[in-house]
Amino acid sequence: MHRILSTLILLACLSLLSAAPAKAWLFGDSALVTIDGTEYTAEDFKKWWGLWKEDDMPLPETPDPYIDWLLLAREGRRMELYSDPGFERATKVYVMSRALLKLKYEEVDSQIDVTDAQIRARYDQDYVPRYGLEGMEFKDIAAAAAAWEELESGAVTVTSLLERDQESGGPVRTAETWLRPKDLEKGSKWKEIYADLEIGEVVDPDKLGESMVLWYLKEIKQADDEDFAAVREEISSKLWKEQEISLTRALIDDLRKKYEVKIDDARLDALDLRADDAAFTDAIVISSNRQNVSEKEFITIMRRVLQNRPMLASALQDEQATQELKKETAYNVIAQSVTNWESLDRHYEEREPFKSSYDF
After folding, report:
1. Which letter does DSSP use for residue 181 in this model?
2. What 3-state class would DSSP assign to 306?
Protein backbone atom coordinates (compact mmCIF):
# COMPACT_ATOMS: atom_id res chain seq x y z
CA MET A 1 0.00 0.00 0.00
CA HIS A 2 2.80 2.37 0.94
CA ARG A 3 4.53 1.54 -2.35
CA ILE A 4 1.39 2.40 -4.31
CA LEU A 5 1.01 5.73 -2.49
CA SER A 6 4.67 6.59 -3.07
CA THR A 7 4.35 5.82 -6.76
CA LEU A 8 1.25 8.00 -7.07
CA ILE A 9 2.95 10.90 -5.28
CA LEU A 10 6.00 10.57 -7.55
CA LEU A 11 3.82 10.60 -10.68
CA ALA A 12 1.96 13.68 -9.42
CA CYS A 13 5.22 15.52 -8.82
CA LEU A 14 6.48 14.64 -12.28
CA SER A 15 3.25 15.90 -13.86
CA LEU A 16 3.58 19.20 -12.01
CA LEU A 17 7.15 19.58 -13.17
CA SER A 18 6.17 18.96 -16.80
CA ALA A 19 3.36 21.53 -16.51
CA ALA A 20 5.74 24.24 -15.32
CA PRO A 21 6.65 26.91 -17.91
CA ALA A 22 9.56 25.89 -20.10
CA LYS A 23 10.97 29.45 -19.76
CA ALA A 24 10.20 30.11 -16.09
CA TRP A 25 12.75 32.96 -16.02
CA LEU A 26 10.26 35.02 -18.02
CA PHE A 27 7.74 35.06 -15.18
CA GLY A 28 9.87 35.82 -12.13
CA ASP A 29 10.03 39.15 -10.29
CA SER A 30 13.73 38.99 -9.53
CA ALA A 31 16.38 40.54 -11.77
CA LEU A 32 17.54 38.53 -14.75
CA VAL A 33 20.92 40.21 -14.57
CA THR A 34 22.59 43.12 -12.81
CA ILE A 35 25.17 45.13 -14.76
CA ASP A 36 27.13 47.88 -13.05
CA GLY A 37 24.45 48.10 -10.37
CA THR A 38 21.51 48.32 -12.81
CA GLU A 39 18.95 45.54 -12.59
CA TYR A 40 17.20 44.20 -15.69
CA THR A 41 14.00 42.20 -15.20
CA ALA A 42 11.79 39.90 -17.26
CA GLU A 43 9.64 42.92 -18.13
CA ASP A 44 12.71 44.66 -19.56
CA PHE A 45 13.43 41.55 -21.62
CA LYS A 46 9.86 41.45 -22.98
CA LYS A 47 10.10 45.07 -24.15
CA TRP A 48 13.45 44.35 -25.79
CA TRP A 49 12.16 41.17 -27.43
CA GLY A 50 9.18 43.00 -28.90
CA LEU A 51 11.60 45.36 -30.67
CA TRP A 52 14.34 42.84 -31.46
CA LYS A 53 12.46 39.87 -32.82
CA GLU A 54 11.76 39.33 -36.49
CA ASP A 55 9.01 37.27 -38.12
CA ASP A 56 9.03 33.60 -37.06
CA MET A 57 12.00 34.15 -34.73
CA PRO A 58 11.64 31.69 -31.82
CA LEU A 59 11.80 32.89 -28.21
CA PRO A 60 15.29 32.16 -26.80
CA GLU A 61 15.66 29.41 -24.23
CA THR A 62 17.66 31.66 -21.93
CA PRO A 63 18.07 35.44 -21.46
CA ASP A 64 21.65 35.18 -22.78
CA PRO A 65 20.95 36.97 -26.14
CA TYR A 66 19.42 39.89 -24.20
CA ILE A 67 22.37 40.04 -21.82
CA ASP A 68 24.82 39.97 -24.73
CA TRP A 69 22.92 42.84 -26.35
CA LEU A 70 23.02 44.86 -23.12
CA LEU A 71 26.77 44.40 -22.86
CA LEU A 72 27.29 45.40 -26.49
CA ALA A 73 25.11 48.49 -26.05
CA ARG A 74 27.10 49.53 -22.98
CA GLU A 75 30.34 49.04 -24.85
CA GLY A 76 29.01 51.18 -27.70
CA ARG A 77 28.14 53.98 -25.27
CA ARG A 78 31.56 53.70 -23.63
CA MET A 79 33.17 54.10 -27.04
CA GLU A 80 30.83 57.08 -27.72
CA LEU A 81 29.63 55.57 -30.98
CA TYR A 82 26.49 57.71 -30.61
CA SER A 83 28.59 60.74 -31.63
CA ASP A 84 29.35 59.24 -35.04
CA PRO A 85 27.91 61.61 -37.71
CA GLY A 86 26.28 58.77 -39.62
CA PHE A 87 24.62 57.45 -36.48
CA GLU A 88 23.46 60.94 -35.51
CA ARG A 89 21.88 61.49 -38.93
CA ALA A 90 20.15 58.11 -38.86
CA THR A 91 18.88 58.74 -35.33
CA LYS A 92 17.54 62.17 -36.27
CA VAL A 93 15.71 60.78 -39.30
CA TYR A 94 14.26 57.97 -37.17
CA VAL A 95 13.13 60.32 -34.40
CA MET A 96 11.65 62.85 -36.80
CA SER A 97 9.70 60.29 -38.82
CA ARG A 98 8.18 58.77 -35.69
CA ALA A 99 7.64 62.16 -34.07
CA LEU A 100 5.80 63.48 -37.14
CA LEU A 101 3.43 60.52 -36.97
CA LYS A 102 2.84 61.19 -33.26
CA LEU A 103 2.23 64.89 -33.93
CA LYS A 104 -0.25 64.11 -36.69
CA TYR A 105 -2.08 61.66 -34.45
CA GLU A 106 -2.28 64.07 -31.52
CA GLU A 107 -3.31 67.17 -33.44
CA VAL A 108 -5.19 65.73 -36.40
CA ASP A 109 -6.20 62.06 -36.47
CA SER A 110 -7.33 61.82 -32.84
CA GLN A 111 -9.48 64.95 -33.29
CA ILE A 112 -11.42 63.64 -36.27
CA ASP A 113 -15.00 62.70 -35.44
CA VAL A 114 -17.26 61.58 -38.28
CA THR A 115 -20.76 61.07 -36.89
CA ASP A 116 -23.72 59.12 -38.24
CA ALA A 117 -25.65 62.38 -38.50
CA GLN A 118 -22.94 63.94 -40.67
CA ILE A 119 -22.87 60.91 -42.96
CA ARG A 120 -26.64 60.97 -43.38
CA ALA A 121 -26.71 64.71 -44.02
CA ARG A 122 -24.07 64.39 -46.74
CA TYR A 123 -25.99 61.51 -48.30
CA ASP A 124 -29.19 63.56 -48.44
CA GLN A 125 -27.30 66.52 -49.88
CA ASP A 126 -25.03 64.97 -52.49
CA TYR A 127 -26.27 61.46 -53.22
CA VAL A 128 -30.02 61.69 -53.74
CA PRO A 129 -32.13 61.83 -55.79
CA ARG A 130 -30.51 59.47 -58.33
CA TYR A 131 -31.22 60.19 -61.97
CA GLY A 132 -31.41 57.16 -64.27
CA LEU A 133 -30.59 58.42 -67.76
CA GLU A 134 -30.47 56.68 -71.10
CA GLY A 135 -28.50 58.11 -73.97
CA MET A 136 -29.53 57.50 -77.57
CA GLU A 137 -26.54 57.89 -79.89
CA PHE A 138 -27.28 58.63 -83.58
CA LYS A 139 -25.04 58.30 -86.62
CA ASP A 140 -24.35 62.03 -86.73
CA ILE A 141 -25.49 65.39 -85.33
CA ALA A 142 -28.02 65.89 -88.15
CA ALA A 143 -29.72 62.56 -87.38
CA ALA A 144 -29.91 63.46 -83.68
CA ALA A 145 -31.42 66.87 -84.53
CA ALA A 146 -34.01 65.24 -86.82
CA ALA A 147 -35.01 62.79 -84.09
CA TRP A 148 -35.36 65.65 -81.62
CA GLU A 149 -37.69 67.55 -83.99
CA GLU A 150 -39.90 64.48 -84.30
CA LEU A 151 -40.01 64.09 -80.52
CA GLU A 152 -40.83 67.77 -80.06
CA SER A 153 -43.65 67.66 -82.57
CA GLY A 154 -45.11 64.54 -81.02
CA ALA A 155 -44.65 62.51 -84.19
CA VAL A 156 -42.77 59.85 -82.24
CA THR A 157 -42.24 58.82 -78.66
CA VAL A 158 -39.04 57.67 -77.04
CA THR A 159 -40.35 54.09 -77.10
CA SER A 160 -41.15 54.14 -80.80
CA LEU A 161 -37.88 55.89 -81.61
CA LEU A 162 -35.95 53.14 -79.81
CA GLU A 163 -37.76 50.54 -81.91
CA ARG A 164 -36.50 52.05 -85.17
CA ASP A 165 -33.37 50.79 -86.86
CA GLN A 166 -30.55 53.12 -87.85
CA GLU A 167 -31.68 53.41 -91.49
CA SER A 168 -35.11 54.57 -90.33
CA GLY A 169 -33.72 57.32 -88.11
CA GLY A 170 -33.29 55.28 -84.96
CA PRO A 171 -30.27 55.40 -82.65
CA VAL A 172 -27.08 53.50 -83.45
CA ARG A 173 -26.75 52.41 -79.82
CA THR A 174 -28.01 53.26 -76.34
CA ALA A 175 -26.31 53.48 -72.95
CA GLU A 176 -27.68 53.86 -69.43
CA THR A 177 -26.06 55.81 -66.63
CA TRP A 178 -26.94 56.97 -63.14
CA LEU A 179 -26.15 60.45 -61.88
CA ARG A 180 -26.24 61.83 -58.35
CA PRO A 181 -26.27 65.50 -57.35
CA LYS A 182 -22.53 65.23 -56.55
CA ASP A 183 -21.89 64.17 -60.14
CA LEU A 184 -23.38 67.36 -61.50
CA GLU A 185 -21.04 70.31 -61.36
CA LYS A 186 -22.41 72.70 -58.74
CA GLY A 187 -23.77 75.91 -60.22
CA SER A 188 -23.64 74.58 -63.77
CA LYS A 189 -26.45 74.11 -66.29
CA TRP A 190 -26.29 70.34 -65.78
CA LYS A 191 -27.69 70.51 -62.27
CA GLU A 192 -30.56 72.70 -63.39
CA ILE A 193 -31.34 70.55 -66.46
CA TYR A 194 -31.61 67.25 -64.65
CA ALA A 195 -33.33 68.69 -61.58
CA ASP A 196 -36.16 70.02 -63.77
CA LEU A 197 -36.65 66.92 -65.93
CA GLU A 198 -39.68 64.70 -65.62
CA ILE A 199 -39.55 60.95 -66.19
CA GLY A 200 -39.69 60.18 -69.93
CA GLU A 201 -38.65 63.70 -70.88
CA VAL A 202 -35.80 64.21 -73.36
CA VAL A 203 -33.16 66.86 -72.70
CA ASP A 204 -33.28 69.70 -75.19
CA PRO A 205 -30.04 69.26 -77.18
CA ASP A 206 -29.70 73.04 -77.43
CA LYS A 207 -29.01 73.07 -73.69
CA LEU A 208 -26.14 70.62 -74.08
CA GLY A 209 -24.55 71.92 -77.27
CA GLU A 210 -24.27 70.06 -80.57
CA SER A 211 -24.16 66.32 -79.99
CA MET A 212 -24.98 63.01 -81.60
CA VAL A 213 -26.62 61.86 -78.35
CA LEU A 214 -30.11 62.57 -77.03
CA TRP A 215 -30.59 61.96 -73.31
CA TYR A 216 -33.87 61.20 -71.61
CA LEU A 217 -34.76 60.66 -67.98
CA LYS A 218 -35.75 57.04 -67.57
CA GLU A 219 -36.12 56.84 -63.80
CA ILE A 220 -35.68 58.78 -60.53
CA LYS A 221 -34.81 57.02 -57.29
CA GLN A 222 -35.02 58.65 -53.89
CA ALA A 223 -33.11 57.72 -50.74
CA ASP A 224 -33.37 54.17 -49.45
CA ASP A 225 -31.57 52.10 -46.83
CA GLU A 226 -29.90 49.78 -49.32
CA ASP A 227 -28.39 52.61 -51.34
CA PHE A 228 -27.32 54.45 -48.18
CA ALA A 229 -25.52 51.34 -46.93
CA ALA A 230 -23.77 50.95 -50.29
CA VAL A 231 -22.25 54.45 -50.22
CA ARG A 232 -21.89 54.93 -46.45
CA GLU A 233 -18.18 54.03 -46.35
CA GLU A 234 -17.44 56.29 -49.33
CA ILE A 235 -19.14 59.23 -47.60
CA SER A 236 -17.41 58.49 -44.29
CA SER A 237 -14.01 58.47 -46.01
CA LYS A 238 -14.72 61.80 -47.71
CA LEU A 239 -15.81 63.43 -44.45
CA TRP A 240 -12.74 62.00 -42.69
CA LYS A 241 -10.47 63.45 -45.37
CA GLU A 242 -12.19 66.85 -45.19
CA GLN A 243 -11.68 67.01 -41.42
CA GLU A 244 -8.09 65.86 -41.82
CA ILE A 245 -7.37 68.70 -44.28
CA SER A 246 -9.11 71.27 -42.08
CA LEU A 247 -7.31 70.22 -38.90
CA THR A 248 -3.95 70.06 -40.68
CA ARG A 249 -4.38 73.60 -42.00
CA ALA A 250 -5.34 74.81 -38.53
CA LEU A 251 -2.26 73.13 -37.05
CA ILE A 252 0.05 74.70 -39.63
CA ASP A 253 -1.53 78.12 -39.08
CA ASP A 254 -0.93 77.83 -35.32
CA LEU A 255 2.66 76.71 -35.85
CA ARG A 256 3.32 79.56 -38.27
CA LYS A 257 2.37 81.96 -35.47
CA LYS A 258 4.44 80.07 -32.89
CA TYR A 259 7.56 80.10 -35.04
CA GLU A 260 6.85 83.63 -36.34
CA VAL A 261 6.96 82.62 -40.00
CA LYS A 262 6.68 85.41 -42.53
CA ILE A 263 6.90 85.54 -46.32
CA ASP A 264 8.30 88.53 -48.16
CA ASP A 265 5.51 88.53 -50.75
CA ALA A 266 7.06 91.27 -52.87
CA ARG A 267 10.38 89.45 -53.09
CA LEU A 268 8.65 86.12 -53.79
CA ASP A 269 6.55 87.67 -56.57
CA ALA A 270 9.65 89.23 -58.14
CA LEU A 271 11.61 85.97 -58.37
CA ASP A 272 12.04 85.02 -62.04
CA LEU A 273 12.24 81.23 -62.24
CA ARG A 274 13.71 81.44 -65.73
CA ALA A 275 16.66 83.58 -64.62
CA ASP A 276 20.17 82.19 -64.13
CA ASP A 277 21.14 81.10 -60.63
CA ALA A 278 23.60 84.00 -60.44
CA ALA A 279 20.67 86.43 -60.46
CA PHE A 280 19.55 85.38 -56.97
CA THR A 281 20.88 86.77 -53.70
CA ASP A 282 21.08 85.90 -49.99
CA ALA A 283 18.10 88.16 -49.29
CA ILE A 284 15.46 86.47 -47.13
CA VAL A 285 12.27 85.22 -48.76
CA ILE A 286 10.87 83.23 -45.81
CA SER A 287 11.82 84.20 -42.25
CA SER A 288 11.13 82.57 -38.87
CA ASN A 289 12.53 82.46 -35.34
CA ARG A 290 14.23 79.16 -36.23
CA GLN A 291 15.57 79.30 -39.75
CA ASN A 292 15.39 81.57 -42.78
CA VAL A 293 15.18 80.75 -46.49
CA SER A 294 17.07 82.97 -48.89
CA GLU A 295 16.43 83.63 -52.57
CA LYS A 296 19.24 81.22 -53.48
CA GLU A 297 17.85 78.49 -51.22
CA PHE A 298 14.31 78.97 -52.44
CA ILE A 299 15.36 78.79 -56.10
CA THR A 300 17.28 75.58 -55.37
CA ILE A 301 14.06 74.13 -53.97
CA MET A 302 12.09 75.36 -56.99
CA ARG A 303 14.59 73.78 -59.38
CA ARG A 304 14.17 70.47 -57.57
CA VAL A 305 10.38 70.73 -57.72
CA LEU A 306 10.45 71.38 -61.47
CA GLN A 307 12.91 68.54 -62.01
CA ASN A 308 10.76 66.05 -60.10
CA ARG A 309 7.53 67.28 -61.72
CA PRO A 310 8.47 68.11 -65.33
CA MET A 311 4.84 68.70 -66.31
CA LEU A 312 4.97 71.88 -64.21
CA ALA A 313 7.54 73.39 -66.58
CA SER A 314 4.70 74.64 -68.77
CA ALA A 315 3.62 76.86 -65.85
CA LEU A 316 6.69 79.02 -66.49
CA GLN A 317 5.06 80.24 -69.70
CA ASP A 318 2.10 81.66 -67.80
CA GLU A 319 2.65 84.45 -65.27
CA GLN A 320 -0.33 83.62 -63.07
CA ALA A 321 0.53 79.91 -63.03
CA THR A 322 4.14 80.77 -62.13
CA GLN A 323 3.06 82.92 -59.18
CA GLU A 324 0.72 80.18 -57.94
CA LEU A 325 3.50 77.60 -58.21
CA LYS A 326 5.87 79.77 -56.16
CA LYS A 327 3.24 80.35 -53.48
CA GLU A 328 2.37 76.65 -53.34
CA THR A 329 6.04 75.76 -52.96
CA ALA A 330 6.54 78.38 -50.23
CA TYR A 331 3.52 77.00 -48.34
CA ASN A 332 4.87 73.45 -48.62
CA VAL A 333 8.32 74.55 -47.37
CA ILE A 334 6.72 76.26 -44.40
CA ALA A 335 4.39 73.35 -43.62
CA GLN A 336 7.23 70.84 -43.66
CA SER A 337 9.53 73.05 -41.61
CA VAL A 338 7.12 73.99 -38.81
CA THR A 339 5.84 70.43 -38.38
CA ASN A 340 9.44 69.15 -38.24
CA TRP A 341 10.36 71.72 -35.60
CA GLU A 342 7.27 71.06 -33.53
CA SER A 343 7.57 67.29 -33.68
CA LEU A 344 11.14 67.47 -32.37
CA ASP A 345 10.29 70.12 -29.75
CA ARG A 346 7.71 67.83 -28.17
CA HIS A 347 10.39 65.20 -27.40
CA TYR A 348 8.18 62.18 -27.92
CA GLU A 349 11.30 60.04 -27.54
CA GLU A 350 11.25 60.87 -23.82
CA ARG A 351 7.74 59.47 -23.34
CA GLU A 352 6.14 56.09 -23.85
CA PRO A 353 5.26 54.41 -26.10
CA PHE A 354 8.07 55.91 -28.21
CA LYS A 355 10.66 55.98 -25.42
CA SER A 356 11.24 52.22 -25.35
CA SER A 357 11.84 51.94 -29.10
CA TYR A 358 14.04 55.09 -29.06
CA ASP A 359 16.18 53.75 -26.19
CA PHE A 360 16.44 50.45 -28.02
Report:
1. G
2. helix
* 180-231 pLDDT, tens digit each: 989 887 656 677 777 778 999 999 888 888 789 999 999 999 999 999 999 9
Query: Is pLDDT of 6 > 80?
Result: no
Q: Which of 153, 144, 149 is nearest to 172 (CA)?
A: 144
**Nearest alpha-carbon partner for 65 in 48, 47, 82, 41:** 48
Q: What is the pLDDT of residue 1?
A: 41
SS3 content of the chain, % helix, strand, coil (to 5): 60, 10, 25
The answer to whether 151 touches 160, Cβ cutoff 8 Å, is: no
Interatomic CA distance for residues 354 and 47, integer angstroms? 12
Radius of gyration for the chain, computed over Cα atoms and rounded to the nearest angstrom: 35
Q: Report the C-alpha gap between 107 and 103 in whole angstroms.
A: 6
CB atoms within 10 A of CB 318: 11
| pLDDT, mean of residues 304-312 | 88
- Cα separation, 128 vs 239, in Å, equals 17
Q: At what angle do helices 225-258 and 85-107 cross, to 10 degrees?
A: 130
